[in-house]
Amino acid sequence: MPNLGKMLFEDGVSAALKGDYATAMRLWRPLANKGVVEAQFNLGVMYAKGEGVPQDNVIAHMWFTLAATKGDADASTNRDNATALMTPAQISEAQKLAREWKPK
Fold this sequence. Notes:
Layout: H1 3-17, H2 21-33, H3 37-49, H4 57-68, H5 73-83, H6 88-100
Helix pairs in contact: 1-2, 2-3, 3-4, 3-5, 4-5, 4-6
């Protein structure tokens, strides 16, 4: 992760630890959209827990899948945990979103 990305990511961590999820989301979403694994994982956590966003296992699963495909073992575990809470239709939708995702 380049220095600016690392700083933005770390600022997002600080914000999330303070419960300022709006700031964390604002900082992490652009990084996640560029394919930064750590940001993708953290967005997955936010959606899984409903921290600063509506709780959404489909979107959480998508972010966890994207991070897991890049080797993040925790993302793989969290994706499996989300899967256990989802219907087959929701799982299919999450997988479709992950397949269609493109870096921005």
